[in-house]
Amino acid sequence: xxxxxxxxxxxxxxxxxxxxxxxxxxxxxxxxxxxxxxxxxxxxxxxxxxxxxxxxxxxxxxxxxxxxxxxxxxxxxxxxxxxxxxxxxxxxxxxxxxxxxxxxxxx
Amino acid sequence: xxxxxxxxxxxxxxxxxxxxxxxxxxxxxxxxxxxxxxxxxxxxxxxxxxxxxxxxxxxxxxxxxxxxxxxxxxxxxxxxxxxxxxxxxxxxxxxxxxxxxxxxxxxxxxxxxxxxxxxxxxxxxxxxxxxxxxxxxxxxxxxxxxxxxxxxxxxxxxxx
Lengths: 107, 160
Hints:
heterodimer, A: alpha+beta, 2 helices, elongated, B: alpha+beta, Diaminopimelate Epimerase, Chain A, domain 1, 5 helices, transmembrane (chain A), membrane (chain A), transmembrane helix (chain A)
């Protein structure tokens, strides 16, 4: 303690806190220019890597050569009283035309 | 070759890449494992969202929602109706959302029973929303929002 020390010895013991006597220009550049640039560089490289990886995004008008897919609802997620109806097979061309509704659009 | 006999290769056999001739003369070869993964431009997260939307639509409305993504040919309407009729019950209570990216055509087909619940006006509204997303290249997002709109239009099943 400051008070205790002065009382005990009768003299102030002063400790000098200083920075390094000299900071070279090279150290200044390293800390304030090279380090931030390195951080920016790493982050920009990470964004580039993510863009190149992963499945290609669909672009309107691009060729679609994936196999045809047909999804239905997950049977486990439908309530029990909902009758389970799974795909029964190929449609009968000669079956009587039923009244279907709906809508269509193109892009 | 008789059962229980060891199939051996000739002594001067040159093993290909990934192959090795064992001490007994048997050929040990490494084969690449081809996982049966769904192919498509969707990420697993997008597939999960589509699955969630489909399940929620079917559960909320009591109708059978399904999504077809593939070629529909020249007569897209006819082929989409054929797909709907190939489902159980002739697709009476089914709603099919058929997307053909090659023709850039979207068809929503409702069966006779489903049509009473889901009027064509609601389908048209969903088509407009989905087409707007597809134009921007967002297939999964348009699909999910379209399914939500169809669900809202159909409502909950009547209590009888």
